[in-house]
Structures are given as structure tokens and as C-alpha cells.
């Protein structure tokens, strides 16, 4: 593992002074090995200073929510959004539900308060955020999917395809045009779906025939298993297909966060909000009405919230994950729950040069093409 000089000496000082117990570092990711999350976790590990990386292990979790609610992980990797299929709903739902609830969010009922003003301690009102971890950075991974099946199975045999719902959504065009009769089945992860094709004892409600099944996963998933072949490659709807993964860490204080060299970007802050009116701040009365200032928004991700039993006829309530430009740290009267600042960004995989023409079905490479 390559150490980065500046950060390594910083880390060494911390290790020597006993500030950090580097023996218990865990990076939790959506497993099993061979998922996209696993690739990102390995990349993140390679960015850590040597002293920290050598005392850090990767830990596979069965679902995205179990990554985020992992009690002891010091680092967590979760997908946030994809350039083709959009938000990763399980990530949003877990971030929002573990941060927001009427009992754990006393400020939600107050009618006016000022928006978070710059910094004090970043952990002051964050105790209910995801296991005391905060967002610290992000890694964007280029995603190229393959279709895999048991050895000897060809595309014309396929009657069902299983994968993570993001992967199924990113390959819709291929699925609809090449195997339109195939049923799709959501699975917890891409690599998990691939592995399941080999499991003869799997309790399968749909009674699916193994020889008629395929899974969408990364090429790397096949490094971990024997018995599967690639039957089509590069099957995502766009060659430029990217997923943005969040990196969360226990090390909240800026002096403890390792910022990979050359990867600084303008910071963005993440907040969980119960209502969009919590966006407003600094409401100062004036002759023309209240002037409302909202920090520059990068994105608002909305998800259904649990229904409110006291007003059953309300429109479906929503919760929001909001991303602001800048490092906006919590103040005591802050509305919403602070989830951290992404202060660095690593891009894995180059952008594909496109000549402006749309990808056709013929561009999808079929391997063992008996279709
Ligand atoms: O299932 C995986 O491999 C994941 O890491 C989740 C995912 C699935 C598809 C695209 C990006 C992330």
C-alpha cells in the first residue's frame, strides 16, 4: 500500500500520541466481495495513510442499511446516486430514518430558527446520525455491467435476471431489447445475485430454474467465483455510467480526517430535514415581507416519510436529504440533522469519449453469442 507523505506523518503523530486506536479500524461496505461497493472500499483503503491502512480491515455487510447502521465500523461506504438510474433509495431511507424522527428531533416542531451558522464543534448535535459517523468525502466509480450465467447457459436460455435494483435500472434498454420475456428480480447486491446462481439449495419462492437465470454484476465479481460465465458485457444503457459513493467516518474532527492529496474539492454539506420549510433561514422582516436566505443548494433528495397518524389525510409526508454548497456546520438552534461535509472527491475510471451517437443494441457485446 502506498503511503502519502504529508498525511502519513500526520497520522504517525496521532498514532504515536495514542490519539487513535488504529488496531480497530473497519471499513464496512455492501458485500459480498466483488460488488461495486467492495471496489470503492478497496480504493478508499488505498488512499489511507499507511499506518492507518495497515490496521484497517474491510467488512462485508449484507445490505446498504446494515452498512450504515453498523455499530463499530470506523468507515462506511454507501452508494448515493447513479448517473442513469438516479438516487439509491435504500441509502436515502436509512440516512433519513436513522437521523429523523419526532422523538429524536426536538427542533422539528419549532416554527422559526436561523440556519446553521459557521463552525463550532461538528459533533455537537449529531448524536443521532448514523452511528456517530459523518460524511467526509466521496468516490465516484465508473460502472460497467456484465450479464453472467452458469457455465453452458446462453442468452437465449435466459428467463429471469436478478441483481441490485440499481443495476437492473441501469440496464433496462438491454433487458427490454435482448431478453424482453425475462422476469427481473431485485437482490441485495450485484455480486450476491451472481453467487446465488450457483446455490442449488437456495430457498426460492419463485421456483426459478437455475439454468434459465442470469445476474447483472461487475466483471470483478467473477474473480471471486468459479462456475459462471459472462454472456454479455457492457450492458448498461450508457457507456458513461457513474455511481457516486459517500464515505463516512468516525473521525469527525477535521484534524483527524484524512484528505487524500490532490483530491480537495469545494465542500458540500449534507442535512436531513423533516420539511422543506427548514431550508429557509435568517428571516428578517422588511416592508416587502420576510427576506429568506437559503444557502446555495446542490441537490434535494426527497423520500416518503412514515405516515403521521395524527393527520392521516395529509398528502404523503416526505423527508429530505439536502446537499448545500459549502461547509455549513451545525449551530445549537439548527433545524434538521447534520450528516457531514464531503470535502474531497476521487474519480475512479475515465470518462468515455463519445462521438455523439446513441449506443445501439449492436454495441452491446455478446459473449458466447448463441442468441
Ligand atoms: O450491488 C453492488 O454491487 C453495489 O455496490 C450497489 C450498486 C449496484 C449497482 C450500481 C452501483 C452500486
UniProtKB/TrEMBL annotation:
Region spans: Disordered: 1-20, 99-128
Domain Prephenate dehydratase: 26-250
Coiled-coil intervals, chain numbering: none
GO annotation, biological process: L-phenylalanine biosynthetic process
Record GO terms (molecular function): prephenate dehydratase activity
Keywords: Amino-acid biosynthesis, Aromatic amino acid biosynthesis, Lyase, Phenylalanine biosynthesis
UniProt key word Transmembrane: no
Pathway this chain belongs to: Amino-acid biosynthesis
Record's protein name: Prephenate dehydratase-domain-containing protein
Amino acid at each position: 500500500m502506498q503511503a502519502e507523505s504529508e498525511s502519513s506523518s500526520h497520522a504517525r503523530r496521532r498514532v504515536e500520541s495514542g490519539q487513535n486506536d488504529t488496531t480497530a479500524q473497519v471499513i464496512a461496505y455492501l458485500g459480498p466481495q466483488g460488488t461495486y461497493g467492495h471496489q470503492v472500499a478497496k480504493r478508499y483503503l488505498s488512499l489511507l495513510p499507511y499506518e492507518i491502512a495497515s490496521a484497517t480491515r474491510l467488512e462485508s455487510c449484507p445490505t446498504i442499511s446494515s452498512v450504515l447502521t453498523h455499530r463499530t465500523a470506523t468507515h462506511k461506504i454507501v452508494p448515493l446516486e447513479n448517473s442513469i438510474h438516479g438516487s439509491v433509495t435504500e441509502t436515502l431511507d436509512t440516512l433519513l430514518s436513522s437521523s429523523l424522527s419526532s422523538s429524536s428531533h426536538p427542533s422539528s416542531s419549532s416554527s422559526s430558527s436561523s440556519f446553521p451558522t459557521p463552525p463550532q464543534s461538528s459533533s455537537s448535535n449529531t448524536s443521532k446520525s448514523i452511528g456517530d459517523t459523518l460524511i467526509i468525502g466521496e468516490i465516484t466509480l465508473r460502472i460497467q455491467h456484465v450479464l453472467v450465467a452458469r457455465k453452458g447457459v446462453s442468452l437465449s436460455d435466459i428467463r429471469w435476471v436478478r441483481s441490485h435494483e440499481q443495476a437492473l435500472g441501469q440496464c433496462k434498454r438491454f433487458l427490454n431489447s435482448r431478453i424482453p420475456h425475462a422476469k427481473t428480480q431485485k437482490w441485495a447486491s450485484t455480486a450476491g445475485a451472481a453467487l446465488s446462481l450457483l446455490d442449488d439449495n437456495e430457498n426460492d419462492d419463485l421456483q426459478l430454474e437455475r439454468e434459465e437465470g442470469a445476474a447483472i454484476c461487475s466483471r470483478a465479481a467473477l474473480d471471486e467465483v468459479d462456475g459462471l460465465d459472462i454472456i454479455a458485457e457492457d450492458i448498461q444503457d450508457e457507456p458513461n455510467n457513474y455511481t457516486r459513493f459517500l464515505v463516512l467516518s468516525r473521525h469527525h474532527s477535521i484534524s483527524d480526517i484524512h484528505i487524500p492529496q490532490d483530491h480537495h474539492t469545494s465542500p458540500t454539506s449534507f442535512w436531513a430535514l423533516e420539511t422543506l420549510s427548514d431550508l429557509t433561514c435568517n428571516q428578517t422582516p422588511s416592508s416587502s415581507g420576510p427576506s429568506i436566505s437559503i444557502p446555495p443548494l446542490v441537490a434535494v433528495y426527497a423520500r416518503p416519510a412514515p405516515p403521521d397518524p395524527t393527520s392521516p389525510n395529509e398528502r404523503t409526508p416526505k423527508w429530505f436529504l439536502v446537499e448545500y454548497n459549502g461547509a455549513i456546520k451545525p449551530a445549537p438552534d439548527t433545524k434538521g440533522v447534520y450528516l457531514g461535509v464531503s470535502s474531497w472527491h476521487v474519480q475512479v475510471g475515465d470518462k468515455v469519449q463519445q462521438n455523439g451517437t446513441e449506443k445501439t443494441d449492436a454495441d452491446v457485446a455478446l459473449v458466447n453469442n448463441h442468441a
